[in-house]
Amino acid sequence: MKAVIQVCRDARVDVDGVTTGAIEHGMLVYFGAEAGDDSSMLRPFLEKMMRLRIFKDERGKMNLSLSQTGGSILLVSQFTLAADVYKGNRPGFETALDAGSAEKLYEEAVSILRGMGYTVSTGVFGAHMLVSYTNDGPETFILDSQCFLHR
Questions:
Q1: Which residues belong to the active site?
Q2: Are strands 55-56 and 62-64 parallel, antiparallel or unpaired?
Q3: Could you give the CA distance from residue 59 to residue 143 in angstroms, rounded to a whole number?
Q4: What is the 3-class SS of 44-59, one letter each residue?
Q5: Is the pTM of this model over 0.90?
Q6: Which domain holds residue 45?
Q7: What's the CATH number where 55 sits?
Q8: Alpha-carbon distance values, 148 to 6, 32, 41, 58, 109 (Å)
Q9: 72-77 and 26-32 beta bridge pairing
Q10: Staple 72 to which of 15, 26, 122, 135, CB 3.0 to 4.6 Å?
Q11: Which string of DSSP letters, residue by residue, matches the chain?
Q12: In this predicted structure, which of 62-71, 90-99, 125-134, 140-149 has the lowest mean pLDDT?
């Protein structure tokens, strides 16, 4: 699994001219799943993401997690995070998790995050989405399950 996490002042996603999800302060998270990812990896991945102290405290230091700021999450599925861009010039998606399994993981991620007490807005899995946001910093982080779950 991979997540691109952006600290934002606001974020929204529109599908066919309709806003499907919007937040004010918080995290815009692009979420992608790769072959081999499964439900057993999801909770530790999300717990790590939510423990990240990427929000500034009163001194301007990144010292606060999302829960300490009262922010929300906009979780957007993005299969292109699993793209192989190193061979040739056209991205390959052989390493992406199949759409049915990826959608189940995405929906489970939304459920787990809400169960943890977070306010979560979403895009629409598999849809063409227009995402707009104000990145605060700019601050962007990449979380890859391969980097910490398999150590």
A1: 78-80
A2: antiparallel
A3: 26
A4: HHHHHHHHCCCEECCC
A5: yes
A6: 2-148
A7: 3.50.80.10
A8: 20, 16, 11, 30, 18
A9: parallel
A10: 26
A11: -EEEEEEEEEEEEEETTEEEEEESSEEEEEEE-BTT--HHHHHHHHHHHHH---EE-TTS-EEE-HHHHT-EEEEEE-GGGG-B-SSSSS-B-TTBPPHHHHHHHHHHHHHHHHHTT--EEE--TTS--EEEEEEEEEEEEEEEHHHHTT-
A12: 140-149
Residue 147 banded pLDDT, cuts 50, 70, 90 = confident
If you average pLDDT over residues 81-106, what whole number do you get? 92
Handedness of CA 122, 134, 10, 141 (dihedral sign): positive
Q: Look at the alpha carbons of 33, 39, 45, 49 in this order and tell me if their dihedral is positive or negative.
A: positive
Question: How many domains does the chain contain in total?
Answer: 1
